[in-house]
Amino acid sequence: MLLSKSHKMTSGYDFGYQWTFTHIHLIPFVLFGAITAAGIRWRWRRWITALAAMAALWGLCGFAITQLVFVPNSPMPLPTGRFLASGAGRVADLGAGSGRASLMVLLTRPKSTVVGLDRFAQNYGIVGNSPARFLANMKVAGVQDRAEVQTGDMREMPFPEDSFDAAVSSFAIDHLSREGEKQALAETSRILKPGGEFLLMVINRDIWVRIAYPFLHGHGYFGMMPARQRWIGLVEAAGFDMVEDGTIPGTLYILARAK
Ligand SMILES: C[S@@+](CC[C@H](N)C(=O)[O-])C[C@H]1O[C@@H](n2cnc3c(N)ncnc32)[C@H](O)[C@@H]1O
Q: For the segment 42-76, what is each residue's pLDDT rounded down to a tens digit?
């Protein structure tokens, strides 16, 4: 994961992810922890105390995974060094939100510029999702001179064709309907120059996600086809050649090149 520790540790970011994502596990931890303590103190039946202890432990694990593995209040780690290896280029961040993926690019690719595109219409887990918050995070990282934000829909992007060297999209296209996914991928292909790189990042229901969010639904996981196969098929059908795919905790990534 190619994000230096100093960038990751930069304080002052506000990515706005709501507590139901970042801190919800503390509720079962505290509640079932108290029940466990009471069970031990007053010698309740062992199975009751054991069940409560397991639920409390799950809360603790979920919280630890969220804070230490997913680290929602930090720029995203770049999952592959092959993305924009030249270090330069004009990049679109599709569904940029509060800017975690834009910072991933700007901090690891020092000669790049980023345009963050987002509808900013619903919060999608980011409380008060707005262009102002995106720009404030760019400022915290000291990269505001290389970042712009634009309000618009990635299913109908407000950009001319062949206008970007690369595009990234993290946990955004997998929020769209089946038709919306195809539209957004076709639009990505349209705005990229021939040979332009596309790094798609979607939720991967791996062991980390299954432990921390066992009830997660949506994110393109309906249906029987394995997610990796489905996303690769969609990306190829939109006019890309595959370069690489892989996973980092909680994330499936696909690196592709526009034809
Ligand atoms: C879960 S957030 C991810 C934000 C950011 N990429 C990140 O990884 O932190 C999903 C983002 O996609 C945006 N979004 C959803 N549908 C969109 C659309 N049709 N066009 C543009 N942005 C969209 C939402 O506004 C939201 O900011």
A: 999 999 999 999 999 999 999 999 999 999 889 99
Helices (H), the chain: 5-9, 19-22, 26-41, 46-64, 100-108, 131-141, 178-191, 207-212, 227-237
Query: What is the spatial distance between Cα 167 and Cα 113, in angstroms, rounded to a whole number?
Result: 11
Query: Ligand 1 pocket check: which of 98, 130, 175 to mutate, most ligand atoms within 8 Å of Cβ?
Result: 175
CA nearest to 165, candidates 111, 201, 203, 122: 111
CA of 95 to the centre of ligand 1 (A): 3
- Ligand 1 neighbours, Cβ below 6 Å, are 95-97, 100-101, 117-120, 124-126, 129, 153-155, 170-172, 175
29 CA distance to ligand 1 centroid (A)?
A: 30
Rounded CA gap, 105 and 99, in Å?
A: 10
Q: For CA atoms 175, 180, 186, 187, give the dihedral sign.
A: negative
For the chain, give every domain's residue range: 19-70, 88-258
Is domain 88-258 in CATH 3.40.50.150, yes or no?
yes
- Tens digits of residue pLDDT in 32-41: 999 999 999 9
For residue 154, give the ligand 1 atom closest to its CA: 20
